[in-house]
Amino acid sequence: MAAEEERRPLRVRAPQRNQEWLLTLLPAFPLVLLVMRLWYASRQDTQTLLLLVQYVSPLGLLSTVLLTLVWVLPAVVLAARVLGPLYRLSTGRPTWVTLAADRMPDWVVAVVVGVGLLGWQLRFLPTLLMLTLAASGLALRERRPQDRTTIRAICLALPVAAGALGLFVLRTAIVQALHQDDLSTLVLLAAPCALAPLLTGPVPARAAPLVVQSLAWALAVLFPLVAGVVVLRSPILPLTAVELAAKPDGKAERVVIGYLITTDDKLVTILERSGAVRFVRNDLLVSRVLCPEPGAVPRTTVHLYEWNVERSVLSWVAPEPMPSPPDSRCEGRPATPADLTPGETTHA
Amino acid sequence: MDIGSSRRFGPLSRLGKTGTPPPEPPAAVAPSEPPRRRGDWLRLYGWLAAILAAVLVGGLIVFETGPPTEAELREQARLTGEHARDKLYIGVKNDTPGIAEKDPRTGAFSGFDIDIAYMIAADLGFRRDQVVFLSIKTEDRARRQATDDKGHYVAVDLVVATFSITPDRVADPSVGFSTPYLYTEQSVVTRKEHPPVASLGQLAGERVCTLGTSTSETPLDKAGVKPLAEMQVSDCFKGLANKKYDAVSTDAAIMAGFVARSHGTFVHHDIALEKTEMWAVNTGTNTALRTLVELALFRSYADPQNTAWEDAYDRHIRPLLAANPGVNVAQSLQPCVKPPRIRRWPWERALSSDGC
C-alpha cells in the first residue's frame, strides 16, 4: 500500500470545473429567506409554521421578498463593475470579480442605475453617482487606454464637475445634517461627491488585491446578510384588530390585535403578535379594522426641499397618505363611535 | 475585450461557452508589475477613505436607532400593545373652583386642570369616556396615589393637580415632571376688612393657612410667618370665612376661584414674590408617557389650529380675573414647549416651534 502511494503522482489541485451547479443555489436563497420569515413569524413553533405554510400564498410572498430586495441589484452590479476593472487595471491580472464584471453588459449597468435612481433613498444617491462615475471611468481606461483626452475628460473633469454640482445641489441638506449632528447623513451626502474623482483609475499594484479582494468578500458576505434582515423584518400578513364579544352577537368586550391568517364560514384564524394562534368563532366577532404596521418611519429629519433624505424618488413622487388619528381598536381598546365608519355597526 | 490570463480562472470564464478552448493570451499581457502611474497612491487613499466612510456609516445606521416613534412610545408607556388598557387614570384636585372641582351631586369634575387632562388624554388616544378622574391629596401627588369614591388608594397614570416644579421634587426619583402647562405665582387672600398686604412679612404674627407639603410654605417660613397647614385648600377658606385664619397664602390660580365665589367677602393681594410657580404634569417613572404628555402640550402650543389650551383658559380662568383685580392669577399664554424628540413621517411634520 505504502509503495503504491509513493508511486502516485503528487496531488495537484484539481481544476475547478463544472461549478455551474452553484447557480442553482441562487433561486434557493429567496426560498430559504421565505421559510425563515415564516419560522420567524411563528416564533419558532413548528405547528404554527405548518399552519402558515398551509395558508400563506407562496407566490405572493415571493413577490414581496423580491420587491423588498430590488434595491440590492444595483449595488451588486455596480460593485462588480467597479471592483473587477479596478483590479485588472491595477495589477494587469483578472480576478473572480473581474470575470463576473465582464459578463455584465453595459445595458444591464444602465438599467440598474435607473433602478437605483428610482428605488434608492435620497441619501444613497450620491453613492450611486460616485459608483456610476467610477464604473464608466474604469471601463473607458480599459477599452481606450490610449485616448488620453477622453480619459482626462471622463475620469477627472466629469467627476470633479459632478461632485461640485452634487455638493451645490445638496448644500441645504448638508447644512441641516451639520446642525443636527447627524453624522451618517452628513457622510453619505458629502463624502461621495468629494471622493468621486479619486475612484476612476487604478491604484498601486501591490495594494489592489487588499482593496479589491477584501471589499469583494466583505460585500459578498454582507449583501445576503442585510437582505435577510430586511426580509425578516418586512410584514407578510395584514395586521388587523378584531373586537370580540363574550357571547354570540353580544357587546364588544375585548380586542385582539394580530395577523389575519384566514377566514372561513365558521372561524377566523389570527396569529397574535406574541406568536400565539387564536381561532375565533365568527358570531363572536363584532368588528374588524386594518391597523398600520409600525413601519420604517425616517430616523432623520434632514430634507432637501421637503424631500426627506430617507425617501426614494418613487416614494417622494407617490401621493402621501392622509394623516388620521389611530383607531382605538389598534391600540387594544374597543371602538368608540368616532372610530366607526357610517356603514359599520356595533352592538351597543 | 481581452480577458488577460483567463486560463487561471477557468471555470467562471468558460461559463456558457461550448467546449472551445479559450484563446491563448498574447505574450505582451503576461502578468508583470505594471509601471507606476501618476495618481495611484492618491487614488488608494481615496479608496481607503471611502471604505472608512462606509464602515462608519454602516455602523451608525445599525446602532443609531434614533428617537422612538409615537406608536413605539405608546407601547413603551404601556398604553397599547400587550399591556393595553381601556381606561386612563388621572389624579386631580377636587375642591378648587376654576381649576378642578368635583360636583358633589353628579360626581363630575370640571376646571382648567380637567380640560388640560382631557386634552392630554385625547392625544394619548383616550376619549372622554375612557378617562377616569380620581381625587388626589396634596401630599400624594408625588407618589401618584389617588383615592376612589370608597376611599381606597389607587395608583394613577398622570397627576394634573396644581403640582409645581421645584428642585426638591425634580430630585425625587419617583417624580417625573413634564414641561409646565401653566405659570402662576404665590399670593395672599384675606377677608375684606384686613388691611392691604404688599409682602408676606406683613403677615407676621397672624394666623396664615396654607397647604401642607406645598411650595407656599417655604416663602412664608422665610418671611417669619408661622403657617398653619391644612390638607385641603377648601379647609383654609372655610377657616378664613369663620375667622379661624386671618389669611390664606398659596398659588394665585388656586385661590382666584374662591375669591370670585365669595362675592366680595375675600380680597386677593399681590405680594412682591419674584418666583414663578410652574404647574406641570407628573408621570412618575414612566418616561415614555412623559414624552407623550410633552408631545400633547407641544401640539397645543405650536399648532395654531389646536386651541384646547386657550379654550380651557378662556372657560375657567379668564372669568375669575374680574374678581381678582391687581393680581396676576395666571399667565394667559401657554408656556413655551420644546418639540419632543420623536420619529415622525415627513408628512406629519407641519408644526414649527419658536424654540423657546
Give me the secondary-structure topology.
The complex is a heterodimer of chains A (348) and B (356).
Chain A: H1 2-7, H2 25-41, H3 46-55, H4 58-68, H5 72-91, H6 96-102, H7 106-119, H8 125-143, H9 148-169, H10 171-179, H11 183-195, H12 208-233, E1 239-245, E2 252-263, E3 267-272, E4 277-281, E5 285-290, E6 303-304, E7 307-308, H13 313-317
Antiparallel strand pairs in A: 1-2, 1-5, 2-3, 3-4, 6-7
Helix pairs in contact in A: 2-3, 2-4, 2-12, 5-6, 5-7, 5-8, 5-12, 8-9, 8-11, 9-11, 10-11
Chain B: H1 10-13, H2 40-63, H3 70-76, E1 88-92, E2 95-96, E3 100-102, E4 109-110, H4 112-123, E5 131-135, E6 145-147, E7 153-155, E8 158-159, H5 167-171, E9 182-191, E10 208-211, H6 217-222, E11 227-230, H7 233-241, E12 247-251, H8 252-261, E13 266-269, E14 276-279, H9 287-302, H10 308-316, H11 318-321
Parallel strand pairs in B: 1-5, 1-8, 10-11, 10-12
Antiparallel strand pairs in B: 2-3, 3-4, 6-7, 9-12, 9-13, 9-14
Model description:
The complex is a heterodimer of chains A (348) and B (356). Chain A is 51% helix and 11% strand. With 348 residues, chain A is an alpha+beta fold. In chain A, helix 2 crosses helix 3. Chain B contains eleven helices and 14 strands. Helix content of chain B is 30%, strand content 16%. Chain B is elongated. At the A-B interface, helix 5, helix 6, helix 8 and helix 11 of A face helix 1, helix 2 and helix 3 of B.
Contiguous uncertain segments of 5+ residues of chain A: 1-6
The largest beta-sheet of chain A arranges its strands as 4-3-2-1-5
Cα Rg of chain A: 27 Å
The helix content of chain B is 25-40%
Order of helices and strands of chain B: HHHEEEEHEEEEHEEHEHEHEEHHH
Oligomer: heterodimer
Largest interface, counted by CB within 8 Å of the partner chain's CB: A-B, 67 and 63 residues
Q: Please state the overall shape of chain B, judged from the principal axes of the Cα atoms.
A: elongated
**Termini separation of chain B (Å)?**
66 Å
- Can you summarize the main beta sheet of chain B? 6 strands, mixed
Computed structural class of chain A = alpha+beta
Shape of chain A: elongated
Helical fraction of chain A = 40-55%
Strand content of chain B: 15-25%
